Amino acid sequence: MSTLRFRALNDAANRKPVKFEESGRKSHLFGSNVFNDQAMRQFLTPEAHQAVKDAVQNGVKIDRKIAEYIAMGMKEWALSKNVTHYTHWFQPLTGTTAEKHDAFFETDFEGGSFEKFGGGQLVQQEPDASSFPNGGIRNTFEARGYTAWDPTSPAFIFGTTLCIPTVFISYTGEALDYKTPLLRALHAMDQAATDVCKYFDKNVKKVTATLGWEQEYFLVDIALANSRPDILMTGRTLLGHTSAKGQQLDDHYFGSIPTRVLSYMRELEEECMLLGIPVKTRHNEVAPNQFELAPIFEETNLAVDHNSLLMDVMQKVGERHDFKVLFHEKPFKGVNGSGKHNNWSLATDTGINLLSPSKTPMSNLQFLTFFINTIKAVNDYEALLRGAIATASNDHRLGANEAPPAIISVFIGAQLTKVLAELEGVSTGKLSPEEKTDLKLNVVGKIPDVLLDNTDRNRTSPFAFTGNKFEFRAVGSSANCANAMTTLNTIVAKQLKDFKKAVDVLIETKDMKKDDAIFNVLREYIKQSKNILFEGDGYSEAWEKEAAKRGLSNFKTTPSALKARVSQQALDLFKEMNVMNHVEVEARYEIELEEYTKKIQIEGRVLGDIAKNHVVPTAIRYQNILIENVKGLKEIFGKDFEKIGKEQIVMIREISEHIEGINTKVDEMTEARKDANSLTDAHVMAEAYCDKVKPYFDVIRSHCDKLELLVDDEIWTLTKYRELLFTK
Ligand code: ADP
Ligand code: MG
């Protein structure tokens, strides 16, 4: 028994859990490794501090000289915390974060040495990043990109490195990362939403989009994870028979958090506290060894950075506790996958949550305005929103009969459905004084009361209103939230801009009062957005049929879903809102197609290897044991053996059939890959991988999984589901 599996099981069984005790109150730790307001007050001149604040709050550019002072202060702060290196921390289009570490340490020509970090190093860096995906942008324009400080996300220290959040752009200004378009989208949102707010409150000067993500993940003992080539190389299991016990009993969800996991979570939370990530809740999820972590919501750009940072930190802290963290959307067949709900809302600088109903009719009209505009935006751009969350790994959830479906729809609850129905009935043109009073008293004014008992949250909806925010639930657990957030904020910003235009036209040309005009436009929006509203069971077949009738898109695979990313509608939208030009949109599309193709290609290779190098040889070994057994029976029982050895002979046959199945299917899959590789168009190639290569996965897996049940457990080399999922 010398296989990796048995060594790994042995290691896992003998683990001495790393203890990490709760240290009582943690609030004093919060942000101590962040160059936040408090640190800036201590290490920056008032002038430099003000420059950063202006940049954060009003988008004012920081000039070179001030940058010099800021860099000096930042360096002093970092050195006071024993930092030795600095890095420009950024989010290339690969879904992970990237860093290039440089030492502060410098020497001069006289042989002296000192710590150097100036404005130049802070503001601009040229990473040698020629191998980051860029969809042809850099080849077309310039050879290299550069990173530049994003002052809206504060610098932080991780380990002994000062990390400076940056954007990553080409010399011609095209975005090569996730952050740049997000910042532009948030800016567009601020402008459009502030303009609309002015109808209700002239004092509003800024609107911020807020994001609270909920990160789901699996923890697997590191030795067990490493014993599985598929987990190691693809982040998920490509085969493995489901264990007799899965999640049927719901005992994990309601159970207490295992001690070893709790220790991990405590240390993780402490790291998060130091980094200023406001983690708040932790709990078990539905599947065995599945968990969730959620912070208090934040401004979207910061929240996105914090989620990317968190995913890094989770893996690093995991290593200290001998865990591997699986962020994949579907690491195990037969148990729930993982998602990352994106809770989203809009907040004014006057402290109002624009998606929260309140006490007065006027502010509720404001709520309804933002509420209905969001629904309209999702209605008009549902395909684009679906495209923003399309990845090879998320395909395992969306449309694969697991939460949520590939169809985008909006759930708003029974009470708000009623409110919209009443608003739809308001008269065209100017409203009579009676009608207005009635609306104010009985419709708009009643919302806060009715929402209090709006507890019927629909868990099957991909985009649900949950009382004071929308929850975009279809985002994948391994995704960078920026993609979804850039799209959502852009479509809503565009919608608000159109709304403002429509209302102004009515006021100016039809001589309407402001609220008459607002009611009139909202009424039309409600009529136009009916298709997207759905309150029923999103997983049902009936909904698929109904959605098709309504003309909603239902893209079950990434290559088909991604097309919407480059539709004329999308190109126009991103251009008009100054979020991305055509080159940037098309570059992203190509990168995402390529990413998809590569993922499926790697999975295909790994599956082929495991099937041929692990499963088939093990099956043959076991078959030989059976053959020996049958030979022995024949020797003892002579011609009677056929009755006695009947079962063994059936098994020998069955094993041969599965081996044959594996060998032919793996060969066919290899041929299909070769055919796909010869294609030149990125989209056609991705489709070939999706339709011609991927279908082999299930067939090959099914043969392997049947063999797993047949073959003696003692010689099976791959760590089994029950071991991966139930080792605590
Ligand atoms: P659940 O959806 O799990 O029942 P909650 O409704 O309490 O939990 O909140 C879920 C998430 O919603 C939290 O991560 C929280 O930070 C986030 N959230 C709450 N209010 C807002 C808001 N105004 N904007 C963005 N996110 C929010
Ligand atoms: Mg939630």
Q: Could you explain the architecture of this structure?
A:
The protein folds into three domains: 31-175, Ubiquitin-like (UB roll) (Roll), CATH 3.10.20.70; 186-580, Creatine Kinase, Chain A, domain 2 (2-Layer Sandwich); 595-726, Four Helix Bundle (Hemerythrin (Met), subunit A). The strands form three sheets. Strands 9, 10, 11, 12, 13, 14, 15, 16 and 17 form a nine-stranded mixed sheet that branches. The mean pLDDT is 90. Helix 23 packs antiparallel against helix 25. With 728 residues, it is α+β, with helices and mostly antiparallel strands. It binds adenosine-5'-diphosphate and magnesium ion (MG). Magnesium ion (MG) binds next to loops. The site of magnesium ion has 3 residues, from loops.
